[in-house]
Amino acid sequence: MKRALLYRRGGLGDTLLTLPVAEVLSREGYKVCFIANSDYIPLITETEWVDEAYSAEYLSYFIDRPFDQKIVISKGGTLDPFPKERIWLPHYYLAHLGLPLNFSQRLPSQQKTFWGGRTKGLAVIHPGSGSPKKNPPFSLFLKIEHFLKRKGYEVLYVGGEAEAWLKGHAVNTLFTRDISELRDILSEASLYVGNDSGVSHLASYMGLKTFVFFGPSDEIVFRPIGMNVHIISLNLTCRPCFPKTCSERMCLNEDALMSLFVQEFLKYY
Predict the structure, then answer these.
(1) Helix (H, G, I), strand (E, B) or coil at 230
(2) With a threshold of 0.85, does the pTM exceed it?
(3) Is it the case that residue 116 has pLDDT exceeding 70?
């Protein structure tokens, strides 16, 4: 069997947007060795697309070993992490590598029951992201929480290290850094709301009905994978601009985003 080395060190969203490369390589007859952020290896190895996965610190060891194809997605590697034009990242990677553009819209996983089946009507909200510049005011999510509760949902906030500020701001909050635990929580939800973040990418890839706010960042390039993802963004000519955002951040206007969320939600519920 042919062997392929695939390296992509980055956040959760970066890793998930790279997984289609592993899937297509596997379908093309390659045994795939994925070198990535160690936090996400449990998730990567649960797919049938990756045969081996190792922490990014081992790249120097594997890069000198024999592979039929070596794909290093990094500055100075075989493929730059981000395209110069506005193109969806999975398509950019696959097209550059001369691989087919068709791939799964659902992440295969082996999730376990987390809540013991008590979560019918659970809505998960993740109000953070890898950069505060991408986050709308937290008051937007409080409005969404109240809206969803009126619709009969139980609401759970999730957060990691970057969302330590959530303590004291939201009552029903679960903090975790464990990717498997996060996956298990999402597996029992029926709806998800968040920003352009790795958690949003995971929720969408798992098949949840996912509502994602894109303000200064680019939904054309960074759109999550999934059949049930709904992008909410304002049609402003000045966006996308991330990471060089303005101080006004009109693209994250609370009232305008809330109105769009309600409109989008009511299309399906």
Answers:
(1) strand
(2) yes
(3) no
